[in-house]
Backbone:
Protein backbone atom coordinates (compact mmCIF):
# COMPACT_ATOMS: atom_id res chain seq x y z
CA UNK A 1 0.00 0.00 0.00
CA UNK A 2 1.30 3.45 -0.87
CA UNK A 3 1.41 6.25 1.63
CA UNK A 4 -0.58 9.43 1.15
CA UNK A 5 2.67 11.24 0.38
CA UNK A 6 3.58 8.77 -2.38
CA UNK A 7 0.12 9.02 -3.95
CA UNK A 8 0.27 12.77 -3.60
CA UNK A 9 3.61 13.18 -5.38
CA UNK A 10 2.47 11.03 -8.31
CA UNK A 11 0.24 13.98 -9.24
CA UNK A 12 2.73 16.81 -8.69
CA UNK A 13 4.93 18.35 -11.39
CA UNK A 14 7.83 20.24 -9.86
CA UNK A 15 9.08 23.33 -11.67
CA UNK A 16 11.93 25.64 -10.67
CA UNK A 17 9.55 27.46 -8.34
CA UNK A 18 6.09 25.94 -8.01
CA UNK A 19 4.93 22.38 -7.50
CA UNK A 20 1.90 22.11 -9.77
CA UNK A 21 -0.95 19.77 -8.89
CA UNK A 22 -1.80 17.65 -11.94
CA UNK A 23 -4.91 16.03 -10.48
CA UNK A 24 -8.48 17.28 -10.25
CA UNK A 25 -9.14 20.98 -9.74
CA UNK A 26 -12.11 23.11 -8.79
CA UNK A 27 -13.56 26.03 -10.76
CA UNK A 28 -10.97 28.37 -9.21
CA UNK A 29 -8.07 26.15 -10.36
CA UNK A 30 -7.25 24.92 -6.83
CA UNK A 31 -6.31 21.25 -6.66
CA UNK A 32 -8.79 19.03 -4.88
CA UNK A 33 -8.93 15.46 -3.69
CA UNK A 34 -10.71 13.18 -1.28
CA UNK A 35 -8.93 12.48 2.00
CA UNK A 36 -10.38 10.21 4.66
CA UNK A 37 -13.71 10.24 2.86
CA UNK A 38 -13.97 14.03 2.68
CA UNK A 39 -13.29 16.44 -0.17
CA UNK A 40 -10.47 18.85 0.52
CA UNK A 41 -8.24 21.32 -1.24
CA UNK A 42 -4.84 19.87 -2.01
CA UNK A 43 -2.82 22.90 -0.89
CA UNK A 44 -4.48 22.65 2.55
CA UNK A 45 -3.64 18.95 2.75
CA UNK A 46 -0.06 19.62 1.64
CA UNK A 47 0.34 22.32 4.27
CA UNK A 48 -0.88 19.90 6.93
CA UNK A 49 1.36 17.04 5.74
CA UNK A 50 4.51 19.16 5.79
CA UNK A 51 3.67 20.78 9.12
CA UNK A 52 2.40 17.61 10.79
CA UNK A 53 -1.06 19.04 11.38
CA UNK A 54 -4.52 17.65 10.84
CA UNK A 55 -7.01 19.28 8.50
CA UNK A 56 -9.33 19.64 11.50
CA UNK A 57 -6.73 21.69 13.39
CA UNK A 58 -6.74 24.36 10.66
CA UNK A 59 -10.46 24.28 9.91
CA UNK A 60 -10.93 27.95 10.91
CA UNK A 61 -7.88 29.14 8.93
CA UNK A 62 -6.95 29.66 5.29
CA UNK A 63 -3.81 28.40 3.61
CA UNK A 64 -2.42 31.24 1.52
CA UNK A 65 -0.12 31.08 -1.53
CA UNK A 66 2.83 33.48 -1.66
CA UNK A 67 3.14 32.67 -5.38
CA UNK A 68 -0.55 33.41 -6.15
CA UNK A 69 -0.67 30.22 -8.24
CA UNK A 70 -3.77 28.23 -7.17
CA UNK A 71 -2.58 24.76 -8.31
CA UNK A 72 0.78 25.20 -6.53
CA UNK A 73 1.38 22.87 -3.58
CA UNK A 74 4.99 23.82 -2.81
CA UNK A 75 5.06 23.96 1.01
CA UNK A 76 7.54 26.83 0.80
CA UNK A 77 4.82 28.89 -0.91
CA UNK A 78 2.10 28.10 1.62
CA UNK A 79 1.36 29.80 4.91
CA UNK A 80 -1.47 29.71 7.39
CA UNK A 81 -3.55 32.81 7.96
CA UNK A 82 -6.98 34.18 8.68
CA UNK A 83 -9.57 35.38 6.19
CA UNK A 84 -8.56 38.93 7.15
CA UNK A 85 -4.90 38.09 6.38
CA UNK A 86 -5.91 36.69 3.00
CA UNK A 87 -8.01 39.75 2.17
CA UNK A 88 -5.17 42.08 3.17
CA UNK A 89 -2.78 40.08 0.98
CA UNK A 90 -5.23 40.32 -1.94
CA UNK A 91 -5.51 44.10 -1.61
CA UNK A 92 -1.73 44.58 -1.25
CA UNK A 93 -1.20 42.57 -4.43
CA UNK A 94 -3.95 44.41 -6.31
CA UNK A 95 -6.01 41.29 -6.96
CA UNK A 96 -9.35 42.48 -5.59
CA UNK A 97 -12.22 42.84 -8.00
CA UNK A 98 -13.37 46.42 -8.12
CA UNK A 99 -14.95 48.96 -10.40
CA UNK A 100 -16.39 47.89 -13.71
CA UNK A 101 -14.91 44.39 -13.41
CA UNK A 102 -17.09 43.74 -10.38
CA UNK A 103 -20.26 41.98 -11.50
CA UNK A 104 -22.87 44.30 -9.96
CA UNK A 105 -21.23 47.56 -11.03
CA UNK A 106 -23.60 50.27 -12.25
CA UNK A 107 -20.83 52.34 -13.85
CA UNK A 108 -17.98 51.96 -16.28
CA UNK A 109 -14.61 53.56 -15.62
CA UNK A 110 -15.36 56.10 -18.35
CA UNK A 111 -18.65 57.08 -16.70
CA UNK A 112 -16.83 57.65 -13.41
CA UNK A 113 -14.42 60.00 -15.19
CA UNK A 114 -17.38 61.79 -16.76
CA UNK A 115 -19.03 62.27 -13.36
CA UNK A 116 -15.81 63.62 -11.83
CA UNK A 117 -15.08 65.99 -14.71
CA UNK A 118 -18.60 67.37 -15.03
CA UNK A 119 -19.19 70.88 -13.64
CA UNK A 120 -21.02 71.12 -10.34
CA UNK A 121 -24.02 72.56 -12.19
CA UNK A 122 -24.43 69.24 -14.05
CA UNK A 123 -25.04 67.10 -10.95
CA UNK A 124 -28.83 66.98 -11.42
CA UNK A 125 -28.46 65.87 -15.03
CA UNK A 126 -25.95 63.16 -13.95
CA UNK A 127 -28.42 61.86 -11.37
CA UNK A 128 -31.09 61.61 -14.07
CA UNK A 129 -28.74 60.21 -16.72
CA UNK A 130 -27.44 57.40 -14.51
CA UNK A 131 -30.61 56.86 -12.47
CA UNK A 132 -28.82 56.82 -9.13
CA UNK A 133 -29.21 58.43 -5.75
CA UNK A 134 -27.74 61.96 -5.47
CA UNK A 135 -25.52 60.72 -2.66
CA UNK A 136 -23.92 58.24 -5.07
CA UNK A 137 -22.89 61.04 -7.43
CA UNK A 138 -21.53 63.10 -4.52
CA UNK A 139 -19.52 60.16 -3.14
CA UNK A 140 -17.99 59.56 -6.58
CA UNK A 141 -17.12 63.24 -7.00
CA UNK A 142 -15.60 63.38 -3.50
CA UNK A 143 -13.47 60.32 -4.33
CA UNK A 144 -15.01 58.30 -1.49
CA UNK A 145 -15.86 55.46 -3.89
CA UNK A 146 -14.21 54.35 -7.12
CA UNK A 147 -10.93 55.75 -5.75
CA UNK A 148 -8.91 53.58 -8.11
CA UNK A 149 -10.18 55.66 -11.08
CA UNK A 150 -8.45 58.98 -11.50
CA UNK A 151 -9.96 61.83 -13.49
CA UNK A 152 -8.13 62.54 -16.73
Residues:
Amino acid sequence: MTSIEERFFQKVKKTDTCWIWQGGRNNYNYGRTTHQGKRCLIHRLMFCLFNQLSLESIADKVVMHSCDNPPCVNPGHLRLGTIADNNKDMVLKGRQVRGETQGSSKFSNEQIREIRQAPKTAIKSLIIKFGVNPRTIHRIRQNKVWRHIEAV
About this structure: The chain has two domains: 4-92, 99-141.
